[in-house]
Amino acid sequence: MMRSLGFPIGFLLVIIHIIPARTDRAPGDTRPNFVIFLPDETRAESIGVYGHPFVRTPNLDALAANGTVFKEAHVLHTQCAPSRCAMITGRYMHVLGHRTQTHLVREYEPNFFRYLKDAGYYVSWHGKNDMFSQASFPLSVSNWTNDIGSSKGPSPFKFNETGYYSFLASASKFFGNDSEHNGDYRAVVKSLEFMSSNPPEPFLIFLPGIGAHPSYGAPKDYFDMYSADQVAKLAPLRPPHVANKPKYHDGIIKYRNLESLNQTFFNKINAIYLGQVSYVDWILGQLVKGIDALPDIAKNTAIFVTSDHGDFSGDYHLVEKWPGGMDDILTRVPLIGRIPGGVKGHVVEAPVNVFDLFYTINVMAGTNVNHIHFAKSLLPELMGGPGDMNRTVYSEGGYQYFREFEPNDPEQKAVYANPHNTYWARGKEEVEEGCPRAIMAKSSTHKLVYRPEGVSELYDLATDKRELNNVYSDPKYQEVVQKMEMDLLAYFVKTADVTPVLEDPRGAPKPPSSN
């Protein structure tokens, strides 16, 4: 009989139809279940356990207190689809060319979800895609729905008014627990009903929600949770027009017509973004609370939280993100894990890449990963290890060729051709000003962003964690620049291509008939 968790009856009727028949584990199968909570566009520094001075994220903080928090987790790209494709293949973006929003993982490409499904895991997915081609979905996922979203009100600006392209929205009339209108929460409801109804085990549940993605709006009980004044006094934003920054910094302000907006405006955007983060935290709390109410499930289920990239959210007077941006607030995301038998309250300062999580899950599941990848297992850290402080992690972005630019992509042309669309201004900037390819190499001491065309960057992390002083051209740092650029050359030589999994006979096929 289905256990009620207090969710709406309408949902129960829907869930009954999507829950598969139970498949009992084989005797001796102790492989863990996995729940991956991946809210979009959620940056690390806007979370309490990552040091934000006043945001309320009690559930993320509690998960960290009962598991491991990775303080320096970086994505492979600062846009959704390229980041996610790298996450699940364990391959850097330049290896297979997943550089755009519409070139997704194809059916011939190995990925970590498919390894688990082929090994007998039931893979349940509720949320956003930006990862698999349509042909790949049934090969890698057992069941999926498109439950995604957070209710927001309309923009307060009319077309062509200053602020129209700022992504500022208003409060919605719906509360956070209104699962009819808040798809991210609805995805959690469905997942908990699945877990409470004798699910097939082992399972992997993937919850890629809209998270803190713009527009900047939220259910009404979160929209006004924080104020612009709090941001100004307790967590001042990075200033605009910082010297020696790449061209897109001033370009975003120019093309989105943000020049005349004052600091209070951007403080308000950040305050609303923090409200979105707190809503993400509340949804996570409902998920963890529901899992812990099922002790037979909880004792053998690992929970992980991360994101695909961050957001400017008012810093530098910028909004949203940039495809070639390697700013820390874009690349650095939360990565928190609570696993069966793992340590509690552990903090890892060593840098990691987010695709390490997906390889770690396969290591924990005991699957045979037989393709060439570059991810590393984080299981030692989850069991209390310190991590590798000498490791360098990487991120990539930017465009070089005509079809890479989003307004030139036939799949997205309609979006960027419409001036009423809030993304129109970004597409215009990409084409007119360029979006040079970039590669980031970040160690525990320095961060290099190399652009063959455009402004390169170097930051001394010992004195400049907020990345306000680009010392790439400073004579005192030329030895560091030369060493890190040589390391980048070695990185590309070692990772520029991979050997395919399938092999081909060297002999010619049987000749065609002479007839």
Description of the molecule:
This protein has 515 residues and is of the alpha/beta class. The chain has one domain (33-400): 3-Layer(aba) Sandwich (Alkaline Phosphatase, subunit A). 31% of the residues lie in helices and 12% in strands. The protein has helices at residues 9-18, 58-65, 80-89, 93-96, 112-118, 137-140, 183-195, 220-223, 228-234, 247-255, 263-292, 295-298, 328-331, 355-365, 379-382, 413-416, 424-433, 478-495; strands spanning 33-37, 68-74, 122-126, 143-145, 203-207, 301-305, 332-333, 336-338, 346-353, 393-397, 438-442, 446-450, 457-460. Strands 1, 2, 3, 4, 5, 6, 7, 8 and 9 form a 9-stranded mixed β-sheet that branches. Strands 10-11-12-13 form a 4-stranded antiparallel β-sheet, with helices on one face. A hairpin with a 6-residue loop joins strand 12 and strand 13 (457-460).
Question: How are the SSEs ordered, and which strands pair?
Answer:
Elements: H1 9-18, E1 33-37, H2 58-65, E2 68-74, H3 80-89, H4 93-96, H5 112-118, E3 122-126, H6 137-140, E4 143-145, H7 183-195, E5 203-207, H8 220-223, H9 228-234, H10 247-255, H11 263-292, H12 295-298, E6 301-305, H13 328-331, E7 332-333, E8 336-338, E9 346-353, H14 355-365, H15 379-382, E10 393-397, H16 413-416, H17 424-433, E11 438-442, E12 446-450, E13 457-460, H18 478-495
Parallel strand pairs: 1-5, 1-6, 2-9, 3-4, 3-5
Antiparallel strand pairs: 2-7, 2-8, 6-8, 10-11, 11-12, 12-13
Helix pairs in contact: 1-7, 2-11, 3-14, 5-14, 7-11, 9-11, 10-17
